[in-house]
Task: structure prediction
Amino acid sequence: MDYDWNAVNTSGPVAADEVQYFVNHKVALKISAFRATIRLSHIHFFTLKGLKLFLGSIMQPGGSWKEWFPENAWQVEMNRIV
Result:
């Protein structure tokens, strides 16, 4: 559904393969001596078709897969904890 700047509904429901929901939620992480706070701004919901399209877009050459999921991310985080 679409809304104008006055929060008035301007259309009826429309089928979608993905939707983002704003949550602005703060989460405290505690793993052994490692502590951090992160903020989750959005939850992204996908249909199976939408998830397939999204993953395909970030995994293609020039996509952001390696930026979001670096190969050594686990080792880097574990080094910070130990």
